[in-house]
Amino acid sequence: MAKTSSARVRPTIRMVAELAGVSTATVSYVLSGRRGEGGPGVSDPTAEKVKAAAERLGYRPNQAARAIRTGRTNTVILSLTMLSDPWSLSVVEAVQKAASPLGITPMILGDADWVKVLGTHNADAVFVDAVRDDQTAALRKLAEHGTTLVVFNEKLEPEGFDVIRSIAEPGCRMAVEHLIHGHRRIACLTPATASGTSGGSRYRAYSEALTAAGIEEREEYLGLFDGTISGAFAATTRLLGIPDRPTAIYATTDFAAVSAINAAQRLGLAVGHDVDIIGVGNTVEGERMSPSLSTVGPVDFFDKLARLLLQRATDDGGPEAPAVLDFPWQLFVRESAPHRSAATRLN
Fold it and tell me: What residues have CB less than 8 Å from 119, skipping those under 6 apart?
């Protein structure tokens, strides 16, 4: 009796071509990652037909063979300082969505030393979300040696790498002023390293906005934490447990604001009524949660970042010279800190 096998036959490029009714050369071009929508000689409908056939068959290109043939790895590296931060999660989601149709795999470095890793690992493009002053020389050296870099930084200029620039301080001031419109007792939830007169711009926006409004900055309303989710939760619990507790909290990141909402709800407070909470970053998680998070941040930041990174990875339509991509900020009023008039101010 003949032996049968239940093993699934791995789909080939020829099978994709037969299903789509095109040549193997057309399939190879469409799925090469050189262009998102087909390219010269390949119409958009044909490209979509090839992609649909590949998806139906579960076809995946042989990445090792492609790397040898093209010199590309079909990977991008995302160096993210804090993976649990909604901002980092939004970056990953946007890049994965943009990379999947191109057959490109995102590789994530969490809390990693990107300087050391990039010295030994290749990728078609790399996104770095934080660069310390002592790392700028290494950044320039990597660019000189041909590493394709997209860097998130408010101060750097493009020197062989692209810069994503999103100046936070004016937007943070907007967030605090939104709370001032309805509150006098406003706390600031911020990492300990970002506080103080010589500290970060996000804390400075809080301090200067209160002063401009004639509101005293109270020491007990400064919720310092260690930069972790649990630390933000504990700091919020302390803020909301003091006599004459704050009626509003300005959190310098969305992830801290999410922790603040969780802490307030644990204490039985209705967010958006008993206490207003606003964050910074305009992350996807903040928009999707309940109550939805009021925040400030750039518009279409994550999708545009992903498009630039994938353009660089595929040499697909991006500007030839390294560029600065600048994002203006705006206020997103949602359920956690609704609009309040002076007549309804919570004192």
Answer: 142
Per-residue tokens: 141 = 């050296």
- What are the backbone dihedrals phi and psi of residue 310, each rounded to the nearest 5 degrees, phi first? -75, -30
pLDDT tens, residue by residue, 322-343: 888 888 899 999 999 998 765 4
| 146 Cβ neighbours under 8 A, 6+ residues apart | none
Residue 176 and residue 209 in contact, taking contact as beta carbons nearer than 8 Å: yes
pLDDT for position 341: 60
Look up tokens 């993976």; give the residue.
83
Name the token pair of 91.
């970056």
Asked if residues 305 and 76 have their Cβ atoms less than 8 Å apart, the reply is no
Residue 272 and residue 336 in contact, taking contact as beta carbons nearer than 8 Å: yes
Rounded to an integer, what distance in angstroms lies between the CA atom of residue 57 and that of residue 17?
11
Token pair 């595929």: residue: 314
Vertex 121 angle, CA 116 and 126, to 5°: 85
pLDDT band at 5 (very low <50, low <70, confident <90, very high): very low
Question: Which letter does DSSP use for residue 72 in this model?
Answer: -
Amino acid 56: pLDDT: 87
Alpha carbon distances (Å) from 66 to 73, 103, 111, 159, 275: 8, 11, 30, 30, 55
Strand pairing of 186-191 and 162-165? unpaired
